[in-house]
Amino acid sequence: MDNEHSSWLLFSFTLPAKNQAGRMRAWRRLTGLGAVIVKSTLYALPARADLAEQLTWLAREVEEMGGEALFLEAGPPSNVTAGEMAALFTRARDADWQALEDELQPLLDHARDAAAGKARPAGRSRKSAPPATDAAALEQARRKLSRRAETLRAIDYFPSGRGQRALALLEELGRILSGLAGEPDGSRAPGVPPVSAADYQGKAWVTRDNPYIDRLASFWLVRRFVDPGAAVEFTGEARAPQRDGAVRFDMAEAEFTHVGPFTTFEVMCAAFSLGSAVPERLRAIIRAIDLDGAHSGPPEAAGVKLILDGLCTLHTDANTRTAAALELFDALLAATKQDQGEQQ
User: Fold this and answer.
1) Residue 220 lies in a domain
2) Which pLDDT value is given to residue 163?
3) Over 60: is that where the pLDDT of 3 sits?
4) What distance in Å separates the CA atoms of residue 196 and residue 55, rounded to the nearest whole number?
5) Is residue 188 part of a domain?
C-alpha cells in the first residue's frame, strides 16, 4: 500500500470504568484488525470498505455496552503527515514480525542441527534427527507460527519487507522438517513401506464405528485412488481380527493406522505414493482437525470442521455418513488443487 495514502478510518471509544471486559474486547478487535494508536485513544486504519464495515459493527457494540464511539473517515490529523501515519503501521507490524522471528529462530536452529546430524555418515557425529515426538512438536509449533504469519501478513498494510525474512525462515523450517520426516513424494509419514493399489482390489475395509475426519477421509482416499468399488465395514470394537479379504484401518493392530504423529490419512497417502495427487493443504486440513484442533491448521480448517460436524449430526448411521462425506472430500480436493495451481 502506498505510503502517501491520504484517507484514514479514525476510531475512538469510551466505556464505563466498571466494564473492563468490554474495554478489553474492543481493544482486541481493534488490534486484530491491525489498528494503531495515533494520539491518546484515537485508533487509525487505512480507508478500506471491509475495515469500515468492521468498525461500524464495533461502534454499535460499544454503544450497546453503554459506551460511546466516534468513527469517521478523514485525512490524517493536522499535526501528523500521511508518511508519519504509515510509519506507525510499519513500526507496529515490524515489532510483531520480530516477535514471531524470535520464537521461530530456536525451532529453526534445532531443526538445522538435526538435519546436519542426519546428513553425516554414521559414527561421524553424535547429532541425529529428533525423535518422532520431538519432530511432531516442531511441526506443531511451525503450523502455529505459520498461522500467526498469515494473520500478520493480512494486516501489514505498509510493509517494510521485514515480514519477508520471517516468511522465508518459516519456509526453510518446513523444508527441513519435511526432510527429517523422509517425505520424498511430499507426504508427511516416515518409514511407511510402499504398497501397490493392485494388491488391494475387491477388499472390505474395516474400521471403528461412528467415523470422523480421519476414517472418513481415509476411506474416501481408498474409493478415489485405490479401489473405486471398495466396501466399508464398521465395528464397535477397538480392534478387529485379521481375515482374508479385509483390510483394517484407523484402529488397533490395523494394516493402516497412525504412525507416530501422523494420521492414518497421511500414512495411506505415503503408502500408496499419493503425495502428488493429494495436495499438502488438504492433508494439513485433515491433520489439524484430527490431531490438535482446527485452530492451528490452515484458515479453512475451522470451516471444514463445522461442516463435518453438521454432516455427522445429520447422518448418525455410519454408512450413510460415509457416503455423504465422499462428496465433501471431492470438493475439498478440487478446491485445494485449484489453490495449489494458482500458487504455482
Assistant:
1) yes
2) 87
3) no
4) 56
5) no
Same domain, yes or no: 155 and 50: no
Three-state SS letters, the chain: CCCCCCCEEEEEEECCCCCHHHHHHHHHHHHHCCCEEEECCEEEEECCHHHHHHHHHHHHHHHHCCCEEEEEEECCCCCCCHHHHHHHHHHHHHHHHHHHHHHHHHHHHHHHHHHHHHHCCCCCCCCCCCCHHHHHHHHHHHHHHHHHHHHHHHHCCCCCCHHHHHHHHHHHHHHHHHHHHCCCCCCCCCCCCCCCHHHHCCCEEEEECCCCHHHHHHHHHHHHHHCCCCEEEEECCCECCCCCCEEEECCECCCECCECCECHHHHHHHHCCCCCCCCHHHHHHHHHHHHHCHHHCCCCHHHHHHHHHHHHHHCCCHHHHHHHHHHHHHHHHHHHHHHHHHHC
314 and 253, same structural domain? Answer: yes
Q: What angle do CA 244, 245, 251 make, to 5 degrees?
A: 85
Domain that holds residue 111: 84-181
User: The sheet that has 204-208: what strands, in order across it?
Assistant: 231-235, 204-208, 246-248
pLDDT digits (tens, 9 = 90+) for 187-237: 455 568 889 999 999 999 999 999 999 999 999 999 999 999 999 999 998
Task: Specify the length of the chain in residues.
Answer: 344
CA–CA–CA angle 169, 175, 178 (5° rounding): 140
| Phi, psi of 214, rounded to the nearest 5 degrees | -70, -45
Q: How many distinct structural domains can be found in the chain?
A: 3
Give the model confidence (pLDDT) of 156-190 as tens digits.
Answer: 999 988 888 888 888 888 878 776 655 444 445 55
Q: Is residue 207 assigned to a domain? A: yes
